[in-house]
Amino acid sequence: MSLAFIQDQIEKLDPAQKASLIDFLWESLDEERIKEIEAKWAAESENRIDAFERGDLTAVDEPSAIEELRNIGLLKLTSPPTSLIITRSFTNGGDRLRQGP
């Protein structure tokens, strides 16, 4: 089974199934690798907050960010962005993607 075949099958999944797949793949990673990734995300988050507070990084409102992501091809959602919520927890073992309200 090729990676291309797997990617093709993933494209056919609905958002909830993709979210479940993300959870499955994340949890299948080595625990040390997960800790390493989370430490890097935590450091990056802190760096971005610090840059924002210094005025080195500006904020973009959600509609503008969504439009920009669609324009450059990084977002393919056609429903409102609130239908998918990404939450990050640095204490419970990883990202969780879930359907929103």
Put the structure in a nutshell.
With 101 residues, this protein is mainly α. The protein has helices at 3-11, 15-28, 31-54, 62-71, and strands spanning 84-89, 94-99.
Explain this structure to me?
- By secondary structure, the chain is mainly alpha-helical.
- The chain has one domain.
- The protein is 56% helix and 12% strand.
- It contains four helices and two strands; from the N terminus they run H-H-H-H-E-E.
- The chain has helices spanning 3-11, 15-28, 31-54, 62-71, and strands spanning 84-89, 94-99.
- A two-stranded antiparallel ribbon has the order 1-2.
- The longest helix is centred in the middle third of the chain and has 24 residues, at 31-54.
- It is flat, with a radius of gyration of 16 Å.
- Residues 81-101 have low confidence and may be disordered.
Shape: flat
Strand portion: 5-15%
Distance between the termini: 36 Å
Q: Name the quaternary structure.
A: single chain
- How helical, in percent, are the residues? 55-70%
What is the number of beta strands?
Answer: 2
Structural class by helix and strand composition:
mainly alpha
Instruction: State Rg.
Output: 16 Å
Unreliable segments of 5+ consecutive residues = 81-101
What's the pLDDT, averaged over the residues? 77
Largest beta sheet, briefly? 2 strands, antiparallel
**Helix count, per DSSP?**
4
Give the topology string: H per helix, E per strand. Answer: HHHHEE
Query: Looking across the biggest beta sheet, what order are the strands in?
Result: 1-2
Number of domains: 1
